[in-house]
Amino acid sequence: MSSLGRTLLTQTLNNLLTLIVIVAIISALFVAYNQKALEGAVVEAVQMYARELAKNPKLSEEEKQRLIKQRELDLRYRFGLLGNPIEKVFNMMVRLLTLDLGAARSIYIGSSYLIKDQVIFALRNTAILFLTSTIIVAVLGIVVGLYAARKAGRSLDRLLSILAVFSASLPMWWVGMLMLLLFSFKLHLFPFQSKDVFIQLMQLERQYQTGELSLLLYSVLKLKTGLYYMALPLATVTLVSFGGWAYIVRNVVITRMSDDFVMVARAKGVPERNVLFGHVLRSASPPLVTMIVLSLVNSLGGAIITETVFGWPGMGLLYWQAILNSEPLLLGATTYVIILMFVIAVIILNFIYALLDPRVRTGGTAQAGVPRA
Q: Where is the chain membrane-spanning (predicted)?
């Protein structure tokens, strides 16, 4: 096996080991929490049973104590409090890794009580909203950041710096409330709660299944309805994130433009466009790719307050519902899925770096991404 293969394999195994350790910690916390909660339930049930026995004058004190101890033992066995804690943690790890966590106490998102179904439904909705916004922000940020770097010190560059500071200082949930106030309450252009989109989509699906809508019309109306309900949260996320993205790209590109290989390329008469896209952007690609991939993964975790403000049934809102309703299994499932996505992203980044950075491929010390002029 080559040195690159060994490096990638080692990094992948390290990431998977990290995932298992984190899952073990989550499982241990849940087992401890569940043990404490069930202990309290057993104590309460035994106390109620003791009060009932106290009303029976035919039983002696010894008989009452024997019945109370037997009831406590039965309850502990029924609630699973008599097993080995290590075995409980291991079983919980297996259940968490496979999302085999049973049913929640209520349907918080979607149409199923199963925790697995609710998490998958929420993850899909978060991906629709935040992956779309992340891609838009990344594309706009790279384009504007590149242009600002070429015009460093000029009016656009100064404007971008002001915009980056301004947008980064705005809380996303606060901007979302302003957007709702203006476009939903005042102008009545967009809906107040985005969760109603799924009611509309189900109605369209029923009309399509009954033959009232053709496939083409159904597809157009489905896309239109989705964009209509997603417009405000999408615009909010893009507005708040765009300036910072562009400013980071601008700084990375300006740093690369002062490198020696860029100076050599310009001295050889290479066209400025080729210098920018063939030399500068290529050498700046590793940090930019890292930003894009990690932003995509972080977006899958949703934004608790933002999704709550807009009523978007994603991972953030599901996480919040799990906290409000004391659903430890649901909370553990959402946490595990977010961590799993992050670990997968890091593994993918390792392989992308092997393609972009010559130092990773050759094991040498060549400067990353420096092409021949």
A: 12-33, 127-148, 160-185, 227-248, 288-313, 333-356
